[in-house]
Design brief:
By secondary structure, this protein is of the alpha/beta class. It has three domains: 2-107 and 253-317, FAD/NAD(P)-binding domain, CATH 3.50.50; 109-251, FAD/NAD(P)-binding domain (3-Layer(bba) Sandwich), CATH 3.50.50; 330-389, no CATH class. It is built from eight helices and 24 strands. Strands 5-2-1-9-20 form a five-stranded parallel β-sheet, covered by helices on one side. Strands 11-18-12-13-14 form a five-stranded parallel β-sheet. Strands 6-7-8 form a three-stranded antiparallel β-sheet. Helix 1 (11-20) runs parallel beside helix 7 (299-317).
Length: 408
Amino acid sequence: MKRIVILGGGTGGTMMANRLVRALPDGWKVIVVDRDDVHVYQPGLLFLPFGTYRREEMTKTRRTLLDPHVQLYLSGIDRVAPDEKVVALTDGTRLTYDILIISTGSRILPDQTPGLTGEGWGKSAFDFYTLEGALRLRYALESFTGGRFVLNVAEMPIKCPVAPLEMLFLADAYFTERGIRDKVEIVYATPLEGAFTKPRASAALGDMLGRRGIQVTGDFSVSEVDGAKKLLKGYDGREVPYDLLVSIPVHGGAEVMTKSGLADAGGWVPTDKHTLRSKQFADVFVIGDATDLPSSKAGAVAHFQSEVLYDNILRHIDERPLVPGFDGHANCFIETGFGKAMLIDFNYTTEPLPGRFPLPMFGPFTLLEESEANHWGKLAFKWIYWNVLLAGKEIPLDHRMLMAGKWA
């Protein structure tokens, strides 16, 4: 019996397991390894602080999301020995593999910013990239009556690069609806020069932030947090005071991947940007946040990658050439508050452009433009995620970025 072992039962790992187990030739087995049996709907973490979702809507067990023919191991990973094709688990199990798929995602490392997890952590300083952090922030927002609301991105890359902007827009709407917006100063302290990484989108989003009275403090690299004085300190000497801080902490890949010689010092796995095969080992493939690719770390990107990786895994089994089919395609809804959202669509070489999506003439979604349809599309994604995306069912969207419907 030959084995495909998938490390990580998140978005990418679950999609790949469910698709492959139905398509592999006889004599192949699919195994998924994850440290726990809790799958979190990460896009919903943005909404949790504002009461849009409840905690119980946010999680399901991994076992219920995987095809019954997929074998699930619930254990940590001690080490991977790629030369021996062995995965050693922390419970003592040793799994041999013929093909390894790394889908270990990314994790936040708030302790890497001096002072962040010290005095005030969970009281005046929060994250929303974890279930617990988002819930604590919810309670803090409910009791917040005014002052400086500061959102800081410690460094790039991060999961879902548009989430900080969404948090700012939703906070603006939340404070407005509570009737205290005139008592709240909203500040965005970011290591980026502007609002976003892509120039055209950055200009559009920066204009929206300005019109909403949200101050952007750009090129700000945080060196430490003084929780007692409620200060962000930058390497260049600038200081940003706050009353309530929302931090997007430093991100890293899986430490065990670095320990196993499969990843760089940050935990990101060197990956061919088009085929999604490891640059080091021919029988190792990578998907989602775990890669070192210059593409967004987001669920939609993992979905587009899965289309290419699925084909390439089957080609690898048949000893056929791999297809360099992934173009860096990313597709992101951006909540802008007040029942509206924006949609951006881009890849490695083409930045977000205005237009219509997915149908060139009729949409129903607008690109680089706010609309109610985009907002409902964002909310509808939760059902699609649980029932279609993770199940590995076909979604009628091309994994490549198409120019149809876009206005250059």
